[in-house]
TrEMBL record:
Lineage of source species: Eukaryota, Metazoa, Ecdysozoa, Arthropoda, Hexapoda
GO cellular component: plasma membrane
Matching PANTHER family: XANTHINE-URACIL / VITAMIN C PERMEASE FAMILY MEMBER
Record protein name field: Solute carrier family 23 member 2 isoform X4
Segments crossing the lipid bilayer: 54-75, 87-105, 159-179, 254-277, 400-421, 427-448, 455-474, 486-509
Similarity comment: family membership: Belongs to the nucleobase:cation symporter-2 (NCS2) (TC 2.A.40) family.
Amino acid sequence: MENLDPPGTVHSSVLGLVDQNGHSKSSEKIEDRPDITYGIDDVPPWYLCIFMALQHYLTMIGAIVSIPFILTPALCMREDDPARGHIISTMIFVTAIVTFIQNTFGCRLPIVQGGTISFLVPTLAILHLPQWQCPAEEQMNNMTSEERTELWQVRMRELSGAIAVSALVQVFIGVFGVVGVLLKYVTPLTIVPTVSLVGLSLFENAAEAASKHWGISVSTIIMLTVFSQCLSEVKVPGINYSKEEGFKIVWFNLFKLFPVLLTIMIMWGICGLLTLTEALPKGHPARTDVKLRILEDSSWFRVPYPGQWGTPTVSLSGVLGMLAGVLACTVESISYYPTTSKMCGAPPPPVHAINRGIAIEGLGTVLAGLWGSGNGTNTFGENVGAIGVTKVGSRRVIQYACALMLLQGIINKFGAVFIIIPEPVVGGIFCVMFGMIAAFGLSALQYVDLNSSRNLYIIGFSMFFSLVLPKWMVHNADAIRTGSDIVDSILTVLLSTSILVGGMLGCLLDNLIPGTPEERGLVAWGEQMKLVSEPTVHGEYNTFDFPVGMATLRRWKWTSYIPFMPTYHPKKKN
């Protein structure tokens, strides 16, 4: 039954536990809770759910469309290949499935699980191996259509197998409750190089796209900066409807909600005007008609399916390389869970919810690999930010968003639309987006003592050397010769993956070089990432419980020993 309470009402379920009669068991005052319109367990009216789900969908699209612009050229695909649109549709289709599972049975937080930049770094390292590098342009142009299709699909199959198999490690971490052990060694000085290098390692890709037309790229950067930083608090009028008041004018933060989408639309329109007036020469990457064939050749409806590019292949070098992306995503998602929970007015996520969330994220990446999206899944920070802006943390809204994503993943023309965005516009977005990813990684420095020469040494060396070695490896892909092609490929991929090199250096140095817990940031980090393991008892409801079957689980006492079960309660050591 729909919850028709007016916006601004904070329900008792949001405040923690409620008994079977619906009475709140929390003693905290509502004033102490975040200012939220709809909490995690609230169900807004269906028409509001649709509108708010559209906001999350548009926020997600702004983050996900950038990935194929880097992935597809590395796969040796033609610029006007309609399959580029198929890849975007596949990514969104898988996002819908994984997000619904995560919201309903996983960590149960209103987060979106979708494609991530973190997997692009190991992906490019794998595709830079001699056997996967693209042939000369002249040779590709002489290929038949079938040969050109097989050229990129064999690479996609290699990536798909590596992604799916490597993600089983993430499933293992969640199912067997290894998160607590992982956090003992994955310290802030490990996170800083691992996450920040995701953005820094892709600077060449951003430069290549932006250099197609620096005027348009710089204009994109300026516009995105103005919208997201200068106009974020500026409200614009919109129309709202409620049963009590009917239609009325409301003011909302348009630029804070959709800075990326607005920038893309406006700059796309400007490129369209430059194309119409012939200000840009024929074939210029900034023209809006360069890739129009993709839209024309794409079918209206297409349902993505597992193995659509052929049976995934598995190589040890690919799997080990992709592990870097898996571990980076694991740490990033763990850090998002407490933040999201707080934004929704929910209690801190218990350890069983975090374990389950990581396991489902791993399962989602397995599905993404099997479906052939060429990428994994991770928590979208952009959608977490949208919760803070809109004050709407309802799980039901995200479930509605899943329906929109599923529909868009099937309507193939929509995926094709995003592929034809002019490349210089995408380059400008890359410059800002990759910079923000790097900054997110650097934000973990707030926990450590930056006056410590020990910490400065670890940060500086782990980040700088992780740019030097992979860069050299890319230009000397055949430098390692052990006598075994398999070992050569494994070492080449591992040493070419900057986030793996940086993460390993940061982890080893921080755990080997002597330092106090306060100096290393372990005290503040441990407080931030504190894992709660108190289970709920019979007669009580908790937002992190399964939506069905809790009574049965409580009768089965053995479930209290399973790390991902809501009844999990590890015995504390004396």
